[in-house]
Amino acid sequence: MQDREEQFKELFHSEYGRMFKAAYILLGDEDEAKDAVQDVFARLWDGTTPLREESQRTFLLTCVRNRCLNIIAQRREKVRVNSEKFATAISLPESDEKLIEAVNRYVEERLTPQTGRIIKMHYNEDQSYKDISSELGISLSTVNKHIVQGLRKLRSTFKNKEA
Question: What ranges in the chain are assigned the alpha helix state H?
Answer without folding.
Answer: 4-27, 30-45, 56-89, 97-109, 113-123, 129-136, 140-158
